[in-house]
């Protein structure tokens, strides 16, 4: 009962903050980029919470349960990506666009913007959808099975849509500093108590060495292709994470955007390393539990993704477990808010306003258009959840789709003057097509040589196709004029 009480109290606190902050939303800029006045400490909190979502709480944890510390390669892709965006954060804020696709249009052309918008909407709806799926599992565990996964997912969908539509980016930034603190404290306290629940550090090590000794190594049991396959999705997504660039535009100045990336790196590395360690300890705790394994002895992937919350519910003291569940509320709510916000912003700015509401100037009406977009997109994301078995599968597909199609063109914008509009458009098409076609072939049970590729490796052919088209088409077409690339190099 106390787990439910703490989670509800924390959710109520977040509701109160958002209702209060919603009163300060007076313009579309307030709604989409929080008025461009976010200080460093709030920006750090919201950047950390942008990345640590259900993909981490469930997908990354499940991969850790299956792979041991080798999962850190998956997380390390994001860490490398954060280091890369450190060098472009200041320039992004100086350009001061609202959305990622604004940058694409400025550096390439309108076609690149529309293709980028389509990619972001589809991929981010998948990401928003697995926040709902994760929320369904969270509520099911919290209610001890009384509430089904499907009902829990629907409840999560309604809550996230309501929060996002109420105050937009202001609400997200306002609550993420609390969410970030709760995540760090809860994860930091859960790990030692989980180790203690299994009899201490030596007992955990002995159990793993007697069952899966390779779990304690970064390399054992994994070939180079697997490592590349799991690094690329997070690396590519982080570099092309539209919500992060939109939040850079929320910073009060360019220097704040750059400083916030350092804080983001520290927070993300700490939380993801601790999450991985908790899941590995969880493998030791549940290594003989039939609920986590299938009849053939292989790991039940869906069950493995619940490992962190299972530990919080069954293995640690109630106070620590309650904090962990509050962190779960923070993780699901914050990430769901962010991805619905970014998706609706792209839909409103790139499609609805230019083509259907181009004469609309009333700030309240513009905000209402985006709020309606949030509701529609949130329901669509909920409908998409049924097409995937696990959170990790959804993460791999969405990360690859957004990363392979947009990361190369974004980095080329800042580091390659020779890239052309035609090269950028061809790269986006190639990057977004490979994972979509691969998934369609899998659903239709069509096999053509190496395709469909296993989800763990889909990022490799997607990136190769995107880079090939970017380089070859750019070199075969006329260089872009100086005014196209100059703002990205100043």
State the gist of this model.
The protein has 490 residues and is mainly alpha-helical. It contains 21 helices and no strands.
Q: Supply the CATH architecture.
A: Up-down Bundle
* Poorly predicted tracts of residues: none
Structural class: mainly alpha
In the CATH hierarchy, what is the superfamily? Sodium/glucose cotransporter
Major sheet summary line: none
Helix content: over 70%
Number of helices: 21
Arithmetic mean of pLDDT: 80
- Percent in strands: under 5%
Radius of gyration: 22 Å
Order of helices and strands, N to C?
HHHHHHHHHHHHHHHHHHHHH
Say what the CATH topology is: Sodium/glucose cotransporter
* Strands, total number: 0
The number of domains is 1
Mass-distribution shape:
globular
Distance between the termini: 57 Å
Give structural notes.
By secondary structure, the protein is mostly helical. The protein is built from 21 helices and no strands. It has one domain: Sodium/glucose cotransporter (Up-down Bundle), CATH 1.20.1730.10. The chain is globular and about 65 Å long. It starts with a helix and ends with a helix.
Describe the protein's topology.
Layout: H1 2-22, H2 28-33, H3 40-51, H4 54-67, H5 72-95, H6 100-107, H7 110-142, H8 149-167, H9 169-197, H10 201-211, H11 224-239, H12 242-248, H13 254-285, H14 301-304, H15 307-314, H16 318-355, H17 363-384, H18 391-415, H19 421-444, H20 459-476, H21 482-489
């Amino acid at each position: 009962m106390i787990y439910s009480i703490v989670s509800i109290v924390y959710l109520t606190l977040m509701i109160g903050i958002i209702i209060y902050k919603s009163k300060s939303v007076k313009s579309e800029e307030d709604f989409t980029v929080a008025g461009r006045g976010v200080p460093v400490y709030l920006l750090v909190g919201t950047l950390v919470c942008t990345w640590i979502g259900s993909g981490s709480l469930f997908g990354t944890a499940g991969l850790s349960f299956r792979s041991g510390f080798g999962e850190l390669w998956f997380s390390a892709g994001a860490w490398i990506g954060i280091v890369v965006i450190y060098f472009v954060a200041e320039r992004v804020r100086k350009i001061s666009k609202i959305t990622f696709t604004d940058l694409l249009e400025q550096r390439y052309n309108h076609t690149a913007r529309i293709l980028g918008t389509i990619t972001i909407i589809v991929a981010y709806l998948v990401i928003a959808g697995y926040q709902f799926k994760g929320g369904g599992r969270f509520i099911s565990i919290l209610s001890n099975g009384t509430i089904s996964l499907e009902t829990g997912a629907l409840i999560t969908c309604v809550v996230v849509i309501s929060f996002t539509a109420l105050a937009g980016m202001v609400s997200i930034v306002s609550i993420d500093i609390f969410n970030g603190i709760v995540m760090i404290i809860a994860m930091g306290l859960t790990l030692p108590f989980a180790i203690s629940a299994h009899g201490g550090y030596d007992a955990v090590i002995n159990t793993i060495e007697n069952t899966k000794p390779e779990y304690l190594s970064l390399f054992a049991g994994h070939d180079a292709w697997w490592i590349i396959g799991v690094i690329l999705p997070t690396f590519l997504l982080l570099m092309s994470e539209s919500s992060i660039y939109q939040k850079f535009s929320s910073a009060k100045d360019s220097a704040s955007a750059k400083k916030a990336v350092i804080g983001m790196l520290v927070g993300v590395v700490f939380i993801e390393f601790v999450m991985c360690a908790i899941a590995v300890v969880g493998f030791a705790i549940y290594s003989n539990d039939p609920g986590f394994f299938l009849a053939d002895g292989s790991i039940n992937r869906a069950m493995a993704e619940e490992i962190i919350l299972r530990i919080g519910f069954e293995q640690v003291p109630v106070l620590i477990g309650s904090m962990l569940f509050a962190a779960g509320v923070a993780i699901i709510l914050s990430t769901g808010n962010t991805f619905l916000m970014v998706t609706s912003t792209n839909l409103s700015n790139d499609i609805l306003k230019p083509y259907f509401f181009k004469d609309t100037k009333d700030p309240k009406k513009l905000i209402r258009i985006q709020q309606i977009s949030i509701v529609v997109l949130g329901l669509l994301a909920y409908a998409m959840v049924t097409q995937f078995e696990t959170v990790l599968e959804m993460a791999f597909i969405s990360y690859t789709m957004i990363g392979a199609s947009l990361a190369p063109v974004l980095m080329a914008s800042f580091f390659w003057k020779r890239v052309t509009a035609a090269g950028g458009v061809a790269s986006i098409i190639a990057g977004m097509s490979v994972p979509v076609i691969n998934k369609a072939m899998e659903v239709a049970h069509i096999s053509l040589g190496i395709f469909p590729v296993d989800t763990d490796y889909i990022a490799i052919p997607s990136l190769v196709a995107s880079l090939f088209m970017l380089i070859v088409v750019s070199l075969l077409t006329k260089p872009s004029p100086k005014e196209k690339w100059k703002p990205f190099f100043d």
